[in-house]
Amino acid sequence: MQRSDWRGYSNDDFERVVDLAPEDTTISVGSGSAALVGGDGVVRDDSWIEVFQSEDGSLAFVQASGPDYPTVLAAALEYPDAEDDTGRDLVVGSGGLAVFSTALDGDGEYSAPLSPTRPGPVPVVHGPPARQPDPGMLIQTTDTTTYRFKIRWYTELDDDDCFARWLLVPSGSQH
Length: 175
Description:
By secondary structure, the protein is mainly beta.
């Protein structure tokens, strides 16, 4: 898929996403497909998601809730993935994985700028929702990378802490 094939705003492609069931993890776009990572409304009533990348190239998209936010994020990252749901493989052939809101276009006037990833500390608290659309993110990959897609929906750690997690694991990785 080319990022320019997605027209969430100008061609109402976003409407195709709205009616999908939670188990729908990909959507056809142009001659390819896109992976869908969406906020779990039971975890939080917004769609704030943290993104982590491990040394082997695995990506974790985590939505978390709890009074000790860093501890919940760490628990979500450490949680076993053997019983996670599996989605379709995602092939990234361009050397870069674009992450952006499906309500926007992939490029052009109605798109969000894509920021390069940058390491940083684990947030101490969950951030407030932005008033404007958040920028997207461009994650560098090798020339062609096939990711296995693993999804863990709403998961309670205890009475106060919960998370949802989406993993993109490079095919050769041991997850």
